[in-house]
Amino acid sequence: VAQDERAGAEAQGAAKCVTALVLKHEGQHAEARSLLAEGLEQAAGSQAAWYALARRAHQELTDPKAYFVPRTEAQVAARQYSAALETLNEGLRVFPNRGELLALRSQVRLEGAKQQLRRRLAATDEAVTLIRQDAAAAIAAGAVAEGHYAAGRLAEELGDRAEAEKNYRAALQAHPANDEVGTRYRVALARVLLMPRRPPPAPVAEPPRVGHAPLLPGPDELRSALALLLVAAVADDPPPPNPSLDEALKLAEEAIRQGNAEGYLIKAQVLARKGMWTQALQEYVQGLQKLPQPPAYYADGLKFLIDNHPAFRRPDSVQPPSPLLAEKYFGAGLTAFYARNYAEAEKQFIEAVRYYSQDARYLYFLGMARLMQGKRSYAAEDFRAGAMLEQQNRPSPAVVNASLERVQGPLRQTLNSYRP
Fold it and tell me: Most buried residue, 108, 122, 322, 396, by CB count within 10 Å?
């Protein structure tokens, strides 16, 4: 039919497209692509059903995002990493040395290796070589941003902070726009800026978990953010001034403006590092609310924050309260405090608060005892809670001032910065 001029242009075009579909099925992609283009041009404007089918097939052979990328992402979301790898291998036969497919294959191999090993990757694992080669090939093929992002994901997985930061910065430099892709690079860079500067821990076996499409922010990346948040949260002393912290906060806020929910988790990490527990908790919860179907393990992270938030570390009040017993413990706490036995003072002040939680003095001295032990986050929350009570005249400022006469110098100045 294709060679019979009497068949008409539309019939000849249809015949060429049918032949092209056979060639496509047989893996002769270049020939199929060329013949589909000829057939579609010859039958241009046809309303027949075959024409739409042929156009879709031609698009699949000219644009990886028409078929291979979305199919891979769907397979990865279902944790079908072997199938996703086959799809990408087929895609690379259609589009040899296509950078975006190489970068995606690097990430698929990373997730597949983690699923197979059921632990974090180590530099000695065989899969690491192939993952790294794909990322490098993607960069060489012109997919600079995607390739560096893939290389950064591997470095982050291996715990190599410096290498991950270098690659994420390169990805962001190649794609500076604050769009959906750009926010992924921003969040990734912010994550590694908050990573501790120490050797990575030895790989630890962990249970299988839900997978995700590596081109989008997914549970593994968010779980990494959660892990860093928990590390930051348990430290009482704030870190020394660190420009990385401010940069991470800026990147997180840019991601939030673009609608990337992981930005809230990054921002929560920064606030936790600054000792701002309550705001960190609020940002974290807000991020969870905006995540589509957050995995169950995020509930564990939320429980950790609540269990370790300074405001929740104070004991429940005794019912009914006993101001007399509270005053007794407060007196014992003062004795220990002025003897510079701050650990014992903390215990006594905690008991004072437990028996009567409506006295600002108890919370102020509890905070000072904790501050003298380096527990800055806890002290700040105690001072804030005490300030709220003093504002309500519980007790009056005059009574509070009388109890603080012996407290002078930087300690008094720190406390006064919280008082109403």
Answer: 108
Backbone angles phi, psi at 331, to 5 degrees: -60, -45
- E strand or H helix at 222, and its extent? helix 219-233
C-alpha distances in angstroms, 340 versus 334, 370, 408? 10, 12, 14
Instruction: List the one residue out of 115, 153, 116 whose CA is nearest residue 131.
Output: 153
pLDDT higher than threshold 70 for residue 406? yes
Q: Hey, how many other C-beta atoms are within 10 angstroms of the C-beta on 340?
A: 9
Q: What angle do CA 122, 76, 178 make, to 5 degrees?
A: 85
pLDDT band for position 41 (cuts 50, 70, 90)? confident
Cα distances (angstroms) measured from residue 50 to each of 40, 42, 306, 385 = 10, 14, 60, 72
The answer to whether the CB of 346 falls within 8 A of the CB of 324 is no
**Distance (Å, whole) CA 84 – CA 91:** 10
User: Quick check: helix, strand or coil at residue 119?
Assistant: strand
CA angle 56–61–63, rounded 5-degree value: 85
Band (355; pLDDT cuts 50, 70, 90): very high
CA angle (209, 211, 217) in 5-degree steps: 120
d(CA 23, CA 172): 40
- The token duo for 116 is 């197979």
Give per-residue burial for 19-38: e unless 16+ CB within 10 Å, then b. bbbebbeeeebeebbebbbb
φ/ψ of 319, rounded to 5, equals: -120, 125
Which whole-number Å values give the CA distances from 289 to 261, 295, 304, 405, in the listed order?
9, 12, 17, 47
Alpha carbon distances (Å) from 158 to 99, 120, 155, 207: 23, 8, 5, 18
- Three-state DSSP class for 372? coil
